[in-house]
Amino acid sequence: MPASVLRRPSAVAPVVMSLAALALVLGHVAMYGIVHEADEGTPAHVFQLLMAGQVPVIGYFVLRYLPEAPRRAVWVVILQLAAAAAAFGALFWMESQ
After folding, report:
1. Contact 86, 18 (CB under 8 A)
2. What is d(CA 2, CA 22) in angstroms, rounded to the nearest whole number?
């Protein structure tokens, strides 16, 4: 087992995907402001794909590395979930305005 499971692509990919979704939300608000549209549009669909695409990657990471290095793997999963919560939090903030 390597010193850090955080160096594995299955550990980094969900965090990067969450940060991309967060950047998408913040970029959309910066460019267009907070606009409530009848149709969701492309940014909303990309956000949904980024967030839903993380689920199987996180599942693989948990199944693969949690039995081998539980303490390290739990911290990586917490990081992954915190990044996802930040993206959803930004979306919730934008929708509540």
Report:
1. yes
2. 30
DSSP string across 11-34: HHHHHHHHHHHHHHHHHHHHHH-S
Looking at the 3D structure of the chain, how many domains does it have?
1
Confidence band for 4, pLDDT divided at 50, 70 and 90:
confident
Name the residue range of residue 22's domain.
9-31+40-96
Both tokens of 22, joined, read 């967060």
Q: Is residue 22 part of a domain?
A: yes
10 touches 76 (CB < 8 A): no
Q: Which residues contact 29 (CB under 8 A, 6 or more apart)?
A: 94
**CB of 29 within 8 A of CB of 94?**
yes
Look at residue 44 and tell me if it is in a domain.
yes
pLDDT tens profile 44-76: 999 999 999 999 999 999 999 999 999 999 999
Please give the structure tokens belonging to residue 49: 């794909």
